[in-house]
Design a protein that fits this description.
heterodimer; A: 389 residues; Aspartate Aminotransferase, domain 2; Aspartate Aminotransferase, domain 1; 2 domains; seven-stranded mixed beta sheet; 13 strands; globular; B: GMP Synthetase, Chain A, domain 3; three-stranded antiparallel beta sheet; three-stranded mixed beta sheet; 8 strands; 36% helix
């Protein structure tokens, strides 16, 4: 039906693993009932068991208790629930002060912007040229009126990891709740909430070869948070709506399938694509941190050329990657991440994100740079900016 | 495979016509700005007797729509007189390409503007501009709409970066709402001077900053 593509946009979404689909199937065709109480009929009890087993798998990967995991429709919902739910629960007890970083992905960023418009006090903390949070500015921004901090564990676009240990220590020290968006880092980068004082964590399945439409929010026991969706009493009365049990089972399976060996394999692909680009193509800048970054993410700017032109050429050659160029985005706005790390529109204009997944090989890293070399050379040949090429 | 563009756009994108920098062009136009997005340069060779465009080329730092439109419009302009070429519209170029996505209009309009500004450059250099219209604040403001604000990716008039425009006996003074130490101050100033100094009755262009 579709042509073969070397897919290097796994940060956007991933191909489902067949083993995940197999794990989900019984919950579509056999135990397809809604989860019932322990006094319900047997098919509902089987479904409930599948759901709770999945919850345990996800919780244990995070060092959490099963009861601290709430299933949601994905990371957008999880982050909305975390921020709006906590602020709502703390209304009147603390001032409406929220702190986020400038590099947050849209679920956190646009939730914060909306709350800002609605009269909440929101501080957006700067990052340095690699995307690492300014800890001094962050620490100074926290006041006795701060209700919640939301800082991602890893960046969706340039892959930079935050020092979650330092951030959570500051929050604990100042007695402020901390939410982290781990959509891109869960299972790829260690996070143990039994050791780190993080109160809420956003998780997603579709970034790790699980199904779309399922995510989770870790809520540390005792964290004040209002019920998100109103309706039934599902998810211990924290999130209403018929549970998506097949997807939850798929999520758990996807978590089990990620191994440390796989993460090393992804890091090797990442390193290869960066090394080869730097060696073979002139005028390339690495975006993000050289040392503190997601194993599956590489992001570079190819100067003097525009990203949508590059991605369209690559698409015609059978590669899928994404760019931070305004021309590529639905909003026609340049990437706030590249601008946030101090880049200008030119830096965003020619930026490409390569994100690797289970079904990539190290040969893909070589193949895309081989293709990219020609694409960039040809586009630079017609660029008014590339005098010396 | 499903691509977001028509096959005509893809063809011109894949094999753009009339590309490259031209040595000693008779006319040259540059539109857009690298700091905020797409940019296109158009070069002309014009027969001085017939005023026919004998050769034309372009360079693009832009997306697929920008490249394809520049390729198409240079094809359309080649062999036409300056007067005929001036009348080529974005709509005609877009139609010839089998249509362009509406959100991409601004990227492709830039190519048309590049052609027109190359023609204007030729006319100004060859004394063909009927120089009876004195430069006014309106004329200056209109030209400033072609100067980009790199912070926003839109022009400096629309983004209200221009605080003041004064035109006095051939001396133009612009005041911008950024400090002189701003990272883009020098680039914007250069672009403004470039856009205004070719006006027939302008003797000097001064760009001031708020601090």
């Amino acid at each position: 039906m579709f042509n073969e593509t070397i897919y290097l946009d796994n940060a956007a979404s991933t191909r489902l693993d067949e083993a995940v689909l197999e794990a989900m199937k019984p919950y579509f065709f056999d135990a397809y009932a809604v989860a019932t109480s322990e006094f319900g009929y047997s098919m509902g009890i089987d479904a409930k068991e599948g759901l709770e087993r999945s919850r345990k798998v996800i919780a244990s990967r995070l060092g959490a208790q099963a009861g601290e995991i709430v299933f949601t429709s994905g990371s957008t919902e999880s982050s909305n629930m975390a921020i709006k739910g906590v602020l709502s629960a703390l209304k009147g007890k603390k001032d409406d002060h929220l702190i986020v970083s400038r590099l947050e992905d849209f679920p956190v960023l646009n939730t914060a912007k909306k709350l800002d418009k609605q009269g909440y006090k929101v501080d957006f903390i700067n990052v340095d040229g690699e995307g690492i949070l300014d800890l001094d500015m962050f620490s100074d921004a926290i006041t006795s009126q701060t209700a919640l901090v939301s800082i991602q564990q890893a960046n969706q676009e340039v892959g930079t990891l935050q020092d979650l240990k330092a951030i959570s220590d500051i929050c604990q020290d100042k007695d402020v709740l901390l939410h982290t968006d781990a959509t891109h880092s869960f299972t790829r980068i260690p996070l143990d909430v039994s050791k780190l004082p993080v109160d809420l964590v956003t998780l997603s399945a579709h970034t790790i070869h699980g199904p779309r439409g399922i995510g989770a929010l870790y809520i540390r026991e005792g964290t004040p948070i209002d019920k998100w969706m109103d309706g039934g009493f599902q998810e211990s009365d924290r999130r209403a709506g018929v549970e998506n049990i097949p997807a939850a089972v798929g999520f758990a399976k996807a978590v089990e399938l990620v191994t440390p060996e796989e993460n090393e394999r992804l890091a090797a692909m990442r390193d290869r694509v960066i090394e080869r680009a730097m060696a073979d193509i002139p005028h390339v800048t690495l975006n993000g941190s050289a040392t503190s970054r997601l194993p599956q993410n590489a992001n570079m700017t190819f100067h003097y050329v525009e990203g949508e032109s590059i991605t369209l050429h690559l698409d015609m050659l059978g590669f899928a990657v994404s760019t931070g160029s305004a021309c590529f985005s639905r909003s026609l706005e340049a990437s706030h991440v590249i601008l946030g790390i101090g880049g200008d529109h030119e830096r965003a204009h020619g930026s490409l994100r390569f994100s690797f997944g289970r079904f990539n090989t190290i040969e893909d890293s070589d193949a895309i740079i081989d293709a990219l070399k020609d694409v960039v050379t040809n586009l630079r040949a017609i660029s008014p900016l590339a005098e010396d090429n | 495979m499903t691509f977001p563009y028509t096959k005509e756009v893809l063809e011109h994108f894949r094999n753009p016509q009339n590309v490259g920098k031209m040595e000693d062009p008779d006319g040259k136009g540059l539109e857009g700005s690298p700091a905020c997005g797409d940019m296109v340069a158009v070069y002309l060779k014009v027969n001085p007797d017939t005023l026919v465009i004998e050769d034309i080329s372009f360079e693009s730092y832009g997306c697929a729509s920008n490249i394809a439109t520049a390729s198409m419009i240079t094809e359309m302009a080649k062999g036409k007189t300056l007067e005929e070429a001036k009348k080529i519209t974005w709509k005609e170029a877009a139609n010839a390409l089998g249509g362009l996505p509406p959100v991409k209009a601004h990227c492709s309009v830039l190519a048309v503007e590049g052609l027109r500004s190359a023609i204007r450059d030729y006319e100004e250099k060859h004394g063909m501009v009927v120089e009876d219209e004195a430069t006014t604040v309106e004329v200056v403001s209109k030209r400033l709409k072609h100067v980009m604000n790199p912070m926003a990716g839109l022009d400096i008039i629309r983004t209200e970066l221009v605080l003041k425009v004064v035109v006095e006996e051939g001396n133009v003074r612009i005041v911008l709402d950024i400090p002189s130490t701003h990272q883009f101050a020098a680039a914007i100033k250069e672009d403004i001077v470039d856009k205004l100094e070719s006006l027939w009755d302008v003797e000097s262009v001064t760009v001031d900053f708020i601090s």
